[in-house]
Design goal:
Layout lengths: L1 E7 L5 H11 L7 E6 L3 E7 L12 E2 L5 E9 L2 H10 L9 H12 L9 E9 L4 E6 L8 E5 L2 E5 L2 H5 L10 H10 L12 E3 L4 E6 L2 E6 L16 H19 L6 E4 L4 H9 L4 E7 L8 H11 L2 E7 L1 H6 L1 H8 L7 H13 L4 E3 L4 H5 L7 H5 L7 H11 L8 H7 L3 H4 L9 H7 L9 H15 L6 H27 L4 E3 L5 H7 L15 H7 L5 H4 L10 H4 L3 H11 L2 H6 L2 H12 L6 H19 L4
Parallel strand pairs: 13-14, 13-16, 14-15, 16-17
Antiparallel strand pairs: 1-3, 1-9, 2-3, 4-5, 5-6, 6-7, 7-11, 8-9, 8-10, 11-12
GO molecular function: asparagine synthase (glutamine-hydrolyzing) activity
Keywords: Amino-acid biosynthesis, Asparagine biosynthesis, ATP-binding, Glutamine amidotransferase, Ligase, Nucleotide-binding
InterPro entries: Asn_synth_AEB, Asn_synthase, ASN_synthetase/amidase, AsnB_N, GATase_2_dom, Ntn_hydrolases_N, Rossmann-like_a/b/a_fold
Length: about 625
């Protein structure tokens, strides 16, 4: 795992600039650094040594000397690919996956991407063609950012590296803020920093002669077959178990020890127990069982014979870490579990360099409780939709009583009511708190082309639950889940591997019928069956809790209330928001008139991010 950066075009200060860019992402690779400077290209690299500790230094060139690469990630099928390349007469100088990757690209060009099994963000300079190729992995596990600055095409693993390039003028992207308030992350290609973009998952970028084009090479497209009664559920379970076992084995390839993150849930429990890892890591809070899964995780660790490391996070250190968390995130993220993940990664990094983590299982196998909503709404299918829509609009005018939200959602199509696992501010609420007029599309307008493409590609055969999965795979997973996993782990020079987000596993999961995901009153039905032998029964049967963080409780306590109140009345807050509206949200939450914790947190983290990247740096 590493950090990459670079730029096109000649500069007299090339070496100084690339060193400054590399320094900004030193945390991604503290073991060593390397650079490559030619008249029209400069590449930079920070290394965290995982495979081929002695000889895997980058930038690295292809066997013919034409291609030069900087690569962040791991190629898990590199041994198979190496054997394939050797059959073509290509010889190797190292045992690294980087050398396999660059020579695979030398042999197959763009088609090499479809041969890879792994996580990656890389840049390849073609000396003969004087062209640059950037690529990001299938699911968005590893990040790649880029910008055009004063005639230079600049790229990096993190935005802060691009900020170190001379000539970039920092400006906030207002449209990103608008979408962020609803999604709790920005789904846009243009980041919160105006003019800096992220390469989207499954995409590659080709730059030549001052121009670039972006191509899609992979899409997370579900293709569920009709439920075949002849297909035995036991057969599906066995096939999935074999797929998962193979992925875990590939993800354990390393020249250093691999540990495991461990919550009290089935996903991490399976990985920690089945992988052969010796150490597992858990965090919790001293706020009662609701906000700590330490005891449940300990049972899994005991059954698997793991050395179990636990970190209890205090309220004060949680608050104190926020500026550093937002700095390492690069962009605001309104997901409080990112802070817990920051401490979890710090704890693990004190013992190992690599950990396995359970991201992706919920999106692939139907693990979120919200995916059961379409089933519950079927109970009132007998009521004409037009009537339900009228009832829903009337219910929206009622006080917040039990059953109100159900009626509202029953009167909406899935395309109207679902934008992903988070839906923080509705359009009217955004307009109330934002000082500047909303100029970008609504969340529904933003997602409309995606839903229309889904409908077209699948000829209307996808069920509502599968449409929800598709949204999460394309937006929530890379925008929230994987973004925080990468940034919080790399803040502590820790590599996180996600075996569920394996191309082979996805190919299997994409074909599963809904009945294999939501069944018998539970989520992830077939997945639970496939991994049940590795975890305690009570873990297998538990309802998904997510990563419970006690911000709802803390925001009602005087110390946090006063600190947030100060931020909500700051000049930075006044620049973007109607502060009286923010204070009302805070007051209503403290007085228990409403649970506004997620709304408050989303604004709060934006303000802390803004202070770190704009207000503080200008002082």
């Amino acid at each position: 795992m590493c950090g990459i950066c670079g730029f096109t075009g000649y500069r007299q200060d090339q070496k100084t600039v690339i060193e400054r860019m590399m320094k900004a992402i030193e945390h991604r690779g503290p073991d060593s650094e390397g650079s490559f400077c030619r008249e029209k290209i400069t590449l930079g690299f920070r290394r965290l040594s995982i495979i081929d500790l002695e000889d895997g230094q980058q930038p690295m060139e292809s066997a013919d000397g034409n291609l030069h690469i900087v690569f962040n990630g791991e190629i898990y099928d590199y041994k198979e690919l190496r054997a394939e390349l050797e059959a073509f007469g290509i010889s190797f100088c190292t045992h690294s996956d980087t050398e396999v990757l660059i020579n695979t690209i030398q042999l197959y060009g763009e088609k090499a991407l479809n041969k890879l099994r792994g996580m990656f963000g890389f840049a390849v300079w073609n000396e003969q063609e004087q062209s640059l190729m950037l690529a990001r992995d299938f699911f968005g596990i590893k990040p790649v950012y880029y910008a055009e600055i004063d005639g230079h095409f600049v790229f990096a693993s993190e935005i802060k590296s691009i900020l170190a390039f001379p000539g970039y003028e920092r400006k906030v992207n207002q449209k990103a803020l608008e979408q962020y308030l609803s999604f709790q992350y920005s789904p846009l290609e243009e980041t919160f920093f105006r003019g800096i973009y992220k390469l989207m998952p499954g995409h590659m970028l080709l730059y030549k002669n001052g121009n670039y084009e972006i191509k899609t090479y992979f899409k997370t497209k579900l293709a569920p077959g009709q439920w075949d009664r002849k297909t035995n559920m036991e057969q599906l379970r066995n096939e999935l178990a074999e797929n998962l076992k193979d992925s875990v084995e590939h993800h354990m390839l390393s020249d250093v020890e691999v540990g495991a993150f461990l919550s009290g849930g089935v996903d991490s429990g399976y990985l920690a127990s089945s992988s052969g890892a010796d150490q597992a890591f858990t965090v919790g809070f001293d706020e009662g069982d609701r906000y700590s899964e330490v005891n449940k995780a300990a049972k899994v660790a005991e059954k698997a014979g793991l050395k179990h490391h636990v970190k209890i996070i205090s309220k004060q250190e949680f608050w104190d870490a926020l500026p550093d968390v937002m700095y390492h995130m690069d962009e605001p993220l309104g997901d409080a579990s990112a802070v817990a993940l920051y401490f979890l990664s710090k704890e693990a990094a004190g013992h190992v360099k690599v950990v396995l983590s359970g991201e992706g299982a919920d999106e692939l196998f139907g693990g979120y409780n919200i995916y059961r909503e379409p089933e519950s709404l079927k109970k009132i299918d007998w009521i004409p939709f037009g009537v339900r829509r009228v009832i829903g609009k009337l219910a929206a005018k009622l006080p917040d009583v039990k059953g109100r939200d159900f009626l509202i959602r029953a009167g909406m199509k899935v395309e109207e009511r679902f934008i992903g696992n988070a839906y923080i501010y509705r359009e009217k609420e955004k307009a109330q708190i934002l000082k500047n007029k909303v100029t970008g599309p609504s969340t529904q307008e933003y997602l409309r082309p995606f839903f229309e493409e889904l409908e077209s590609e699948n000829r209307g055969l996808l069920q509502d639950m599968e449409k929800m999965q598709s949204v999460d795979l394309s937006y929530w997973l890379p925008g929230d889940i994987l973004q925080k996993a990468d940034k919080m782990s790399m803040a502590h020079s820790l590599e996180v591997r996600v075996p569920f987000l394996d191309k082979e596993v996805f190919d299997f999961a994409a074909k599963l019928p809904k009945e294999a995901k939501i069944a018998a009153g539970t989520t992830k039905y077939i997945f639970r069956k496939a991994v049940s032998q590795f975890i305690p029964q009570e873990t297998d049967e538990r309802k998904k809790l997510g990563f419970p963080i006690p911000i709802r409780v803390w925001l009602r306590q005087d110390d946090w209330y006063q600190m947030v109140k100060e931020l909500f009345t700051s000049k930075e807050a006044e620049e973007f928001f109607h502060t009286e509206e923010l204070l009302q949200l805070l007051k209503d939450h403290k007085e228990k008139k409403a649970d506004n914790s997620r709304k408050i947190w989303t604004v709060l983290t934006f303000l802390i991010w803004y202070d770190r990247f704009f207000a503080t740096c200008s002082k």
